[in-house]
Amino acid sequence: MLFIDTPLKDLYLIKPELREDERGYFARVFCVDEFSQHGLCTHWQQANIAYNKDRGITRGLHYQHSPDAEIKLVRCTRGSIFDVAVDMRTESETYRQWYGVELTESNQQMLYVPEGFAHGYQVLDANSELHYMVSAPYAPQSEDGMRWDDPAIGIQWPITTTVILSDKDQQWSLLD
Question: pTM of the predicted model, to two decimals?
Fold first, then answer.
């Protein structure tokens, strides 16, 4: 696996190294030794999948406060998404900065989202599916979020019309 630094501290793009032959390919998407060597989480509590039937579905931005903060390892297994992380750690030099990357079934990339980051994504292809690992069980009492279109963050989403949001995601407050 290739661990690629992003502009945001502690946020990594991870690319599996495919071993291909006439049968297809093989790649690791997690290895305790490699993740440990990079100081990353190796103890996952949950594995989730999310199916998104329509282009333009936008989920997030979500995060959990301590003591229930989560680390996520996100991968798109079918279709494509624009995946976004926002640094919400007030002590960080990249506080309130965002990073977005296209995750697709063909590029096989993963986004490692550390504690203290809000996370969300936008579906670029109908019938897209995600698989993501989470370091802590979901704790509704620690949940927080922000608007996907908050001008204080200024995320440049690929789709700005025909965006489909849940009722909960429509209710998040603006930061400022």
Answer: 0.94
